[in-house]
Amino acid sequence: MTENVKEQLKKEGEKIARKSWFQEMEPVQIKIVDRKWKTKRGWYEWRKKVCYISGRQPIKDIIETVYHELAHHVEYQHAPNFFRRKGVMHSRNFKIIYYRLHSNIPLQKVIEGLYPYEHSRGWKWKDKKKTDMQWIPGKERR
Predict the structure, then answer these.
(1) Distance between terminal CA atoms of the chain?
(2) CB–CB of 36/54 below 8 Å?
(3) Separation CA 21–CA 127 (nearest Å)
(4) What does each C-alpha distance from 121 to 87, 114, 124 come to in angstroms?
(5) Burial of 142 (0-12, 13-18, 19+ CB in 10 A)
(6) What's the rounded mean pLDDT across residues 104-118?
(7) Residue of 30, 49, 90, 141 with fewest CB within 10 Å of its CB?
(8) Sign of CA dihedral 23, 24, 29, 30
(9) The predicted structure's pLDDT at residue 141
(10) Domain ranges of the chain
(11) Stated pTM of the model
C-alpha cells in the first residue's frame, strides 16, 4: 500500500471517527490487512470486536467495507434483542443499520425502529456483557 493510499485512508477514517454514532458505540478495532480473500472483502470478529478489511481493493471499496463491517459491529453490540439466525449473515436490520451509518446521527437513531428478531434456530447473547453467545436449537423443519 502506497503512502498516498495510507494518507487517504487515514483521512477517511478520521471522517468516520467524527460521526456521532461512532463516538457513542462500543469500541471496535479496524485493521486493514494486506490480504485478499476469495469470497469476501472483510469480516467482523465479534469475540474480539475487530473488523478486518482487505487492503487489496480500491480505496472506495475499502471505505464501503469498513462501513459494512461496522454495521455488523453495531448490530451485534447495540441492536435490541439481537439474534443471529442460522444461515443468515445479513438480516434486514443489518441492511437498515448499514445505510444509516452513512449519516452523522446519534447511535440511538441508527438502531431506532429496527424489526424484531425472529428467534428460531440461531445464536443469542448468553450474558449482558455480550462476551459469549449460545446456540438456540429451535424447532426442526421437516
Answers:
(1) 51
(2) yes
(3) 24
(4) 9, 20, 10
(5) exposed
(6) 94
(7) 141
(8) negative
(9) 53
(10) 3-136
(11) 0.90
C-alpha cell of residue 93: 436490520
Half-sphere exposure of 99 (CA within 13 A, CB side): 7
pLDDT tens profile 25-49? 999 999 999 888 877 899 999 999 9
Q: How far is CA 131 from the centre of its chain?
A: 16
Q: Which helix (H) or strand (E) holds 45?
A: strand 42-45
* Beta partners for residue 134, in sequence order: 124
Residues whose CB is less than 8 angstroms from the CB of residue 97 and which lie 6 or more positions away in sequence, other chains included: 71, 74, 75, 79, 110, 111, 114
**94's grid cell:** 443489518
Residue in the block written with cell 428460531: 120
* pLDDT tens sequence across 66-81: 999 999 999 999 999 9
The label of the residue with cell 424447532 reads 139
